[in-house]
């Protein structure tokens, strides 16, 4: 896919995607040319996208960041999903040298001690593997939704990621959690059993807790930090730029 004006291209694609259903959105994007990559954390919304990719046999690479600290339930779901949809979920792991360097500087669980240390851990275990997963890609598909958190409330269907030089597509941007759950039930899509135990958003085991009644979906992520807009950096331009500089 050759793009001469990526921002205008993203805006035009955003308008086209708005009028399509999920299958139509994914089909359109997969036919634009170039390598298309969907990164999944195996959360309920990501499972919806994976199911559609597998069911319709779309030419989209499915990748996950196997950080080394995931819940056993998440690891089991990777295998179950591959089997059910006859697809390959490519695993991208952190480099052992990076983990060792992190542990030497901060301690293995130093992310509890400071925001700097937590960002550094996410950089080693998530951002650097993501960079490898997206090598050669022209389009990156995510499971971002507007209802996940306040700082994701304006999520578009398509945008230009200037740091990674690709189009970023969020086909579930306008889906709420009730619609997600109804689709999962209708299509018998396998989901992480932790969702039923109060974990609407699931990341690394040491950094994720069940949420309390009335809390936002992502309140259980990095719960010891006070910043309500906290993120791991995957969807934050500044973090991506820092990794690219390295």
TrEMBL record:
Residues 36-210 form the Phosphoadenosine phosphosulphate reductase domain. Binds 1 [4Fe-4S] cluster per subunit. One of its GO terms (molecular function) is phosphoadenylyl-sulfate reductase (thioredoxin) activity. One of its GO terms (cellular component) is cytoplasm. It catalyses: [thioredoxin]-disulfide + sulfite + AMP + 2 H(+) = adenosine 5'-phosphosulfate + [thioredoxin]-dithiol. GO terms for biological process: cysteine biosynthetic process; hydrogen sulfide biosynthetic process; sulfate assimilation, phosphoadenylyl sulfate reduction by phosphoadenylyl-sulfate reductase (thioredoxin). Its cofactor is [4Fe-4S] cluster. This is Adenosine 5'-phosphosulfate reductase. The gene is cysH.
């Amino acid at each position: 896919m050759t793009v001469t004006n990526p921002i205008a291209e993203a805006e035009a694609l955003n308008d086209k995607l708005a009028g399509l259903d999920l299958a139509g959105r994914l089909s359109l994007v997969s036919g634009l040319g170039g390598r298309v990559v969907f990164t999944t954390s195996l959360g309920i919304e990501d499972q919806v996208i994976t199911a559609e990719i597998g069911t319709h046999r779309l030419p989209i690479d499915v990748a996950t960041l196997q950080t080394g600290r995931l819940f056993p339930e998440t690891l089991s779901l990777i295998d179950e999903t591959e089997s059910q949809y006859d697809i390959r979920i490519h695993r991208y792991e952190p480099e052992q040298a990076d983990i060792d360097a992190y542990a030497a500087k901060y301690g293995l669980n130093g992310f509890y001690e400071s925001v700097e240390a937590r960002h550094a851990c996410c950089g080693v275990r998530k951002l650097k593997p993501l960079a490898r997963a997206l090598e050669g890609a022209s389009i990156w598909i995510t499971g971002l939704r507007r209802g996940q958190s306040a700082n994701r409330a304006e999520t578009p269907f398509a945008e230009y990621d200037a740091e990674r030089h690709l189009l970023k597509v969020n086909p579930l941007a306008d889906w709420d959690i009730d619609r997600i759950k109804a689709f999962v039930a209708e299509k018998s899509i396998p989901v992480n059993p932790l969702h039923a135990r109060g974990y609407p958003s699931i990341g690394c085991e040491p950094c994720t807790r069940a949420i309390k009644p009335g809390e936002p979906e992502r309140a259980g992520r990095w719960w010891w930090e006070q910043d309500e807009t906290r993120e791991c950096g995957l969807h934050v331009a500044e973090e991506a730029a820092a990794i690219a500089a390295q």
